[in-house]
Specification:
Elements lengths: L2 E5 L3 H13 L3 E5 L2 H10 L4 E5 L7 H9 L6 E5 L3 H4 L10 E4 L4 H16 L6 E3 L3 E4 L4 E4 L2 E2 L4 H11 L6 E2 H8 L10 H16 L6 E4 L3 E4 L5
Parallel strand pairs: 1-2, 1-3, 3-4, 4-5
Antiparallel strand pairs: 6-7, 7-8, 8-9, 10-12, 11-12
């Protein structure tokens, strides 16, 4: 059964979440501090983290950044104000969704199910290879010219979408869909930042290559001849 880590300092809120999630078949682990959550996720299998933004020892935003240093586990923020998340949640920090207090525990459980289905259902074929790239969808790994790339979850999904559809121009909206982010969420330009990071990592392997092509006004494509 998928395990959900709940990082929430208010016991009453945590209790309602535990009940709702366990009723949907999830196992749960509850901790009250960001530091405890980070340490648990570092050494234990976790399928999703429900992370409160306002924690006593650290903000949920900082905790998510620390988590992203070693894990791509999906993150669902709990926040008292939607405005404080609107500018941050999503591609910039690596979170997947948020809910605003007060919320329905059933809604949280439903969103957890959607996120896990989305993350688990978009890995594509188990393996796919061409002359330069080898994509392993089961292990969530991509090798470039035989070297394993150190990719975030978002970078993996973007690069997988591009290299498995050679020469097809994918718009930012289509790439957002590959990440499981709604096209109307306002994160289209963040795709550019992830593409820039991907290009830097590819150049570390092959400095003269340019496999990801920019199509101004449209999007991006993978050109095998430039790889």
């Amino acid at each position: 059964m998928p395990q959900v880590l709940i990082v929430e300092d208010e016991a009453a809120i945590a209790d309602t979440l535990i009940f709702a999630l366990q009723a949907e078949g999830f196992t749960t682990r509850w901790v009250q501090l960001a530091g405890e959550g980070i340490e648990f996720a570092r050494y234990n299998p976790v399928d999703l983290v429900v992370l409160d933004v306002g924690l006593p020892d650290s903000s949920g935003f900082e905790a998510c950044k620390r988590l992203r240093q070693f894990s791509d586990v999906p993150v669902l923020f709990l926040t008292a104000r939607s405005s404080e998340v609107d500018r941050i949640v999503g591609l910039e920090i690596g979170a997947d969704d948020y809910v605003v207090k007060p919320f329905s525990p059933r809604e949280v459980a439903a969103r957890v199910k959607v996120i896990l289905k989305r993350v688990g259902g978009r890995t594509g074929p188990a393996t796919r290879s061409d002359e330069r790239f080898s994509v392993d969808g089961e292990r969530l790994q991509i090798r470039y010219r035989g070297q394993l790339l150190n990719l975030t979850r978002h970078e993996f999904k973007l690069l997988q979408s591009l290299v498995t559809q050679p020469e097809r121009v994918l718009t930012r909206d289509q790439l957002l869909q590959a990440l499981g982010v709604a096209a109307d969420a306002g994160y289209e330009r963040n795709i550019d930042g992830h593409i820039k990071s991907l290009r830097a990592k590819l150049r570390e392997v092959a400095p003269d290559s340019e496999p990801i092509q920019t199509h101004r006004g449209f999007g991006y494509s993978y050109n095998p001849e430039r790889s």
